[in-house]
Amino acid sequence: MSSPPLADGRWVSFDIPLSDFVGLTTKGHLAQLILTSDPKTVYVDNIYFYSGGGAPTQPDEPAPTPAFSATDVISLFSNAYSNVTVDTWSAEWDDADVTDTQIAADDVKLYTNVNFAGIEFTSQTIDASAMTHFRMDIWTPDALSDSAIFKIKLVDFGANGVYDGGGDDVEHELEFTAASTPALVTGSWIVFDIPLSDFVGLTTKAHLAQLIFVSEPNTVYVDNILLHK
User: Fold this and answer.
1) Is 132 contained in some domain?
2) Residue 156 CA neighbour count, 13 Å, CB half
3) Per-residue pLDDT reduced to its tens digit, 126-184
4) Could you give phi then psi for residue 157, rounded to 5 degrees?
5) Which has the closest alpha carbon to 13: 76, 70, 72, 56?
6) Residues 68 and 222 sit within 8 Å (Cβ to Cβ)
7) Residue 55 domain-assigned?
């Protein structure tokens, strides 16, 4: 599996150090660029050389703005909507650091030193019974290792709406890699728009109370955390 991986239906950005072309021992008279491809149909844009800088350390544009009707959304964090109450964006039991920042005047959360992060909305749990999808956007500057993974877990506190150590609490976790849909990539916004039915263990949704994500990469920008129908 290469980095970035080939993928269907989205732009794949190749930002390649010239040093990787180890046989290109001179560069004073470049004359040809040859592409070999299977897939047979490709759109191509932004072919250029540049110097300095290296890979970007933060997004140069905001995450795609969701276009769902406000009446069909429960938003935890998005400038596009009014947000519900979230008690903490980094629970005392997690091992992540979070700061508020902006990308092109758009508010985002920056998580660093992440192994796992806990987002809690326990004081006012969310009734997602009428919702059909969970949305979350992330961007990472980190190069992806072979073990790179991003996990999303939703936790519902059951009919009584309180944590009871497993009684009627339910949860489900999904995993994403460089080979999943959507795929993990470096330097591009990744939009997770996931049917709630994919969280098969989440058999109740009337008292959602926690969102937990596990991440390697360890630095992620996060935006547009919401439920919609």
Assistant:
1) yes
2) 20
3) 999 999 999 999 999 999 999 999 999 999 999 888 888 768 899 999 999 999 999 99
4) -85, 10
5) 56
6) no
7) no
Tell me the C-alpha to C-alpha distance, in Å, between residue 184 and each of 86, 135, 180, 220.
26, 15, 7, 11
What is the residue type of 118? Answer: G
Q: Give the domain extent around 113.
A: 70-228
With a threshold of 0.85, does the pTM exceed it?
Answer: no
Q: Structural domain tally of the chain?
A: 1
Q: What is the CATH number of the domain that holds 145?
A: 2.60.120.430
Q: Is residue 33 included in any domain, yes or no?
A: no
Tokens matching residue 71 = 């009446």
Contact between 119 and 226 (Cβ < 8 Å): no
Q: Comparing 28 with 182, which gets the higher pLDDT?
A: 182
Give strand pairing partners of 73. Answer: 228
In a domain, residue 200? The reply is yes
Half-sphere exposure of residue 2: CA atoms within 13 angstroms, side-chain side: 9
Largest Cα–Cα separation, the chain: 72
